[in-house]
Amino acid sequence: MASRFALLSLFVSCLLIATSFRHSFAAEDVAGNDDLLIRQVVDHGNNAGAVDENSLLNADHHFTIFKRKFGKVYATQEEHDYRFSVFKANLRRARRHQKLDPAAVHGVTQFSDLTPREFRRQFLGLNRRLRLPSDAHKAPILPTNDLPTDFDWRDHGAVTPVKNQGSCGSCWSFSTTGALEGANFLATGNLVTLSEQQLVDCDHECDPEKKIHVIQAAVVDL
């Protein structure tokens, strides 16, 4: 009887140890996959649609990573809860978009706690049509025969990394430097990142239409 009890105790101990190791390895796997899961919310596998949404989104976990990664701090618990609800809505939207285009990558960004309306108001800024100056140069109409199916200048090293202008109304300066960076690469073969801040520092106008003259002058000088 005593030997049976000893064997049973040994079996239970081994089972507990095995379970402990399994949970430990699982925790390491989850930690290692944080970056992947936060960037892409739908599995590339053939059974992606069958993945349980609750386990896939795991919103609490991703929101914790999101706050830590982007330094998000909210003034009140009410604001925190509201941003969490917006975050979950954006996760679901990203998942829908991911399923529509499996080749793309949709997931969490620094803007994932903003509603679409808030994002438009804070970062898209300009909401009226601009009038071109009367002396604006018109671009020639180029031939479109024998064009490749697709072409991406990033594959040829002609595009600088993505920049973030924040809430500053300086999109005109980013457009200018982006165009000049590409043109300079075509002319010299060298990709140089230009400074939007230098253009903004030299500008004293508040009217966005005035910026068109800056862009035009830069292109003409080139």
TrEMBL record:
GO terms for molecular function: cysteine-type peptidase activity. Residues 1-26 form the signal peptide. Residues 147-222 form the Peptidase C1A papain C-terminal domain. GO terms for biological process: proteolysis. Keywords: Disulfide bond, Hydrolase, Protease, Signal. Residues 63-119 form the Cathepsin propeptide inhibitor domain. Belongs to the peptidase C1 family. This is Cysteine protease RD19A.
